[in-house]
Amino acid sequence: MAEKIVVASGKGGVGKTSLTVGIGKALHKMGKRVLIIDCDILRSVDLLTGITENLLYDWGDVILERCEAEAAIYPSADVAVMTCPTDYDGITENDMKELLRSLEDDFDYILLDAPAGIGRGFRLAFAGADRGLVVSTADMVCVRSACRAADVMYSAGMTDVRLIINRIMKKDIKKGRLLNIDTVIDSTQVQLIGVVPEDAKIRLGAMGKSIYKKGQVSYLPLTNIAARICGEYIALTL
Length: 238
What we know:
The longest helix is centred in the middle third of the chain and has 16 residues, at 140-155. The chain has a single domain, classed as Rossmann fold (3-Layer(aba) Sandwich), CATH 3.40.50.300. α1 (16-29) crosses α9 and α4 runs parallel beside α5. It is built from 9 helices and 8 strands. It is an alpha/beta fold.
């Protein structure tokens, strides 16, 4: 039965979708069956996984009974993807829960890429999730947004929420341009699961470049996050 994990940020621009894809690829490398569900109507997971040309149906079509679930699941080289409808009309949180229940026997992990903000799309994304990952960069604007997103999930009854601090630049932290790691953790009040450094190559995912590849500075941090998700003890190195 799949573990369902929502990846959220509160604010856009923190690299959440790239992290979602990277973590999915890392889980696949560990032998896990992974489905990524894009819950953002702006849609970008298909671009980062190279399946755009094959798209016909989305998960909204499944919920609204326009197609079977199998027709809306698109395999890439490593993860499977369900893309988002262009609007949420006629779709409820219970619909999303039912969709996830219908898929959970076919995968080990289902990652739900939530849209930025805490609106309807965000709430649909975490409606049927078991756990949450909140992504923030080390600046106060993103930290405040991440804290708010975590609070909404806690208020809805989700007890297992973890923090990923993304796009860390140690030089800027030392010079006081960015918050230090402890300040980010204290400000969000969310337990840390991983720190990912700034990686210029990961931002080339939309140009067809691999997001998860040996030699990239984000490769080992993403591998470690995936291992921690699977319950392995991997010491945090900051």
